[in-house]
């Protein structure tokens, strides 16, 4: 059964502000935000072992930021990260995050 997650405007704005990979925003479909339901308790050894080809991630609060230079579809990290995060999460690329931010600013 699919879960639903509601992220408040303040938490969403904070996620954008704390993005450690702003340099990756020029290719927005390659930058992903994993919004975690709970504060993650990651198995960093397993997460680090999934990285390849210049991929990088950073966890700040309840958000994991992931840059996949070769795309998410080809990434082992992208497909397996959630099970090593210690929290359920929903991932969105920066195109979607930017659009949602515009919608929040318009309200």
Name a few traits of the molecule.
4-stranded antiparallel β-sheet; 4 strands; 107 residues; 4 helices; globular; alpha+beta
Q: Could you characterize what this model shows?
A:
The protein has 107 residues and is an alpha+beta fold. It is built from 4 helices and 4 strands. Strands 2-3-1-4 form a 4-stranded antiparallel sheet. Strand 2 and strand 3 form a beta hairpin. The longest helix has 13 residues. The mean pLDDT is 93.
Task: Set down the secondary structure blueprint.
Elements: H1 9-17, E1 31-36, H2 44-50, E2 56-60, E3 63-67, H3 76-85, E4 89-93, H4 94-106
Antiparallel strand pairs: 1-3, 1-4, 2-3
Which structural class best describes the helix and strand composition?
A: alpha+beta
Q: pLDDT average, as an integer?
A: 93
H/E series, N to C? HEHEEHEH
Question: How much of the polypeptide forms β-strand, as a percent range?
Answer: 15-25%
Uncertain regions spanning at least 5 consecutive residues: none
Q: What profile does the largest beta sheet have?
A: 4 strands, antiparallel
Read across the widest sheet, the strand sequence of neighbours is 2-3-1-4
Annotation, overall tally of beta strands: 4
Head-to-tail CA distance between termini: 31 Å
Number of helices: 4
Q: Considering DSSP H and I runs of 4 or more, what fraction of the residues is helical?
A: 25-40%
State Rg: 13 Å
Shape assignment: globular
């Amino acid at each position: 059964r699919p879960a639903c997650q509601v992220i408040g405007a303040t938490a969403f704005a904070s996620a954008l502000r704390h993005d450690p990979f702003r340099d990756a925003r020029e290719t927005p479909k390659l930058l992903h935000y994993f919004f975690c339901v709970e504060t993650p308790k990651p198995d960093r050894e397993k997460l680090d072992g999934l990285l390849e080809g210049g991929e990088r991630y950073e966890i700040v609060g309840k958000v994991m930021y992931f840059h996949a230079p070769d795309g998410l579809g080809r990434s082992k990290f992208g497909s397996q990260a959630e099970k090593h995060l210690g929290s359920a999460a929903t991932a969105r690329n920066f195109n979607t995050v930017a659009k949602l931010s515009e919608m929040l600013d318009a309200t």
